Amino acid sequence: MRNTWLLLGFTCVVLSTQCLHTEKPFPPIAMIGEWKGECKIIVSWCEQDRLAFHLIIGSDGRVEGSIGDASIADGSVSKNSWFLARLGKPQYIIEATLDGSIVATEEIHRESITLLVDIDDAELEGGFRTSGSKLGGKETMAMSGSSLRLTKIKRLDSEISEIGMLQLVGQERIGDG
C-alpha cells in the first residue's frame, strides 16, 4: 500500500512539472547576435595574459567568428544538462573547431575550444578550455581561461524570424529576455 502512495505521489509531481513546462526557443533569443570581449588566460606557460573573442551566434545555434588569432571553422551552442545547471554550473556550452593559431606570436595552436557560459543581461560570462593534454607545456597542454565577459554589440535582426519576434515579445513581457 505504501509503495502505491509513493508511486502516485511521484506521478503527480512529474505530471505537474510537465504541465508547467513551456518550450523556449533555442538558442535563446537573447543569445542570438554578435558578441565581443575577452578572457583572462590562466596557464603559466603562455606569455599573453588575455584572449580576445568575437562570436556571431545565429538563430540555428551555429557560431562563427574568431578566438584569439584563430578563426572558428565550425561552432555550435548547446544547453548544458539541467542537472549541472541546477548545481550552479553554466547553462550553455559553445564548442568550436579552430582554424589557425590561437596565439600566433607564441605559435600556440589548438584544434578546438569549449566555452561554458551564462547569460547575464546583455553579457555572456564564463570561462574556456581548449583541446590538449592535462600535462605538458605550450606545445601540447590545454589552455584555460576565466573571467570571460562578452558584450553583445549587435542583434542579428535578419536572423530572427517572424515567429522569433513573437517569442521575443513574449519573453520581454515575462522578463525572461
Q: What do you see in this structure?
A:
The protein has helices spanning 2-20, 82-86, 162-174, and strands at residues 33-41, 50-57, 62-67, 70-79, 92-99, 101-103, 108-109, 112-120, 123-130, 144-154. The chain is globular, with a radius of gyration of 20 Å. The model is unreliable at 12-23 and 170-177 (pLDDT under 50). The strands form 2 sheets. Strands 1-2-3-4-5-8-9-10 form an 8-stranded antiparallel beta barrel. The protein has a two-stranded antiparallel sheet with strand order 6-7. It is built from 3 helices and 10 strands. It has one domain (29-174): Quinohemoprotein amine dehydrogenase alpha subunit, domain 2 (Lipocalin, Beta Barrel). With 177 residues, the protein is an alpha+beta fold.
Note poorly predicted spans.
12-23, 170-177
Q: What is the string of helix and strand elements? A: HEEEEHEEEEEEH
In round numbers, the mean pLDDT is 81
Instruction: Bin the strand percentage.
Output: 35-45%
CATH superfamily: Quinohemoprotein amine dehydrogenase alpha subunit, domain 2
| β-strand number | 10
Give the structural class. alpha+beta
Global outline: globular
C-alpha-based Rg, rounded: 20 Å
Biggest β-sheet strands, sense, barrel: 8 strands, antiparallel, barrel
> Number of DSSP helices?
3
CATH class: Mainly Beta
Helical percentage? 10-25%
Give me the CATH architecture, please. Answer: Beta Barrel
- Number of spatially distinct domains: 1
Strand order of the largest sheet: 1-2-3-4-5-8-9-10
